[in-house]
Amino acid sequence: MKDNDFKNITTVQLLSNLYLIKAITIALICVITVLLSITIYGMATKEENGTFVALFVVGISGSASLPLLFINIKKIKAELKSRK
């Protein structure tokens, strides 16, 4: 979203978006943690590492979206704070 879009959204919608982004962030962190844990365990104990290396790359690349989610959370909180 653009910075200007937050000014055009109502407070209720901002709170709804904030809740949704937080839920998505928590779910993504949990899934990435489980995925990376399984792949690290698999790489350490199994002889065939091809599948686990590929899953490890998927987990690392999935975590690249987390900073964007945190930035949006910060922007929404700043907009809510400016409205009070």
Description:
The protein has 84 residues and is mostly helical. It has helices at 3-7, 11-45, 50-62, 66-83. The protein is rod-shaped, with a radius of gyration of 18 Å. It starts with a helix and ends with a helix. The relative contact order is 0.17.
- Distance between the first and last residues' Cα: 22 Å
Number of helices: 4
- What's the shape? rod-shaped
Radius of gyration: 18 Å
Structural class: mainly alpha
Strand residue percentage: under 5%
Portion of residues within helices = over 70%
How do the strands and helices of this protein lay out in sequence?
Blueprint (H helix, E strand, L loop, with lengths): L2 H5 L3 H35 L4 H13 L3 H18 L1
